[in-house]
Design brief:
Helix content is 37%, strand content 25%. Strands 1-2-3 form a three-stranded antiparallel β-sheet. β1 and β2 form a beta hairpin. The chain is globular, with a radius of gyration of 11 Å. The mean pLDDT is 92.
Length: 63
């Protein structure tokens, strides 16, 4: 797993969400167990981190 992705997962979990591995992706679940977002298991490209953080902020998953 990518080092940057590990850091992002820790931030997500610090906000009360659970990150569950699911094959090639990770599922972000809320306290009720509902999947609220799916993270890529193998991000690629140069701007994936910026786009991912932006999307997680929009959805209220991270601050």
């Amino acid at each position: 797993m990518d080092k940057e992705l590990r850091k992002i997962i820790k931030r997500i979990e610090a906000n009360g969400f659970v990150v569950v591995p699911g094959g090639k992706h990770f599922k972000v679940q809320d306290a009720a167990g509902n999947t609220v977002y799916t993270l890529p298991g193998t991000p690629s490209g140069q701007v994936w981190r910026v786009r991912l953080l932006s999307e997680l902020r929009k959805r209220g998953i991270i601050e």
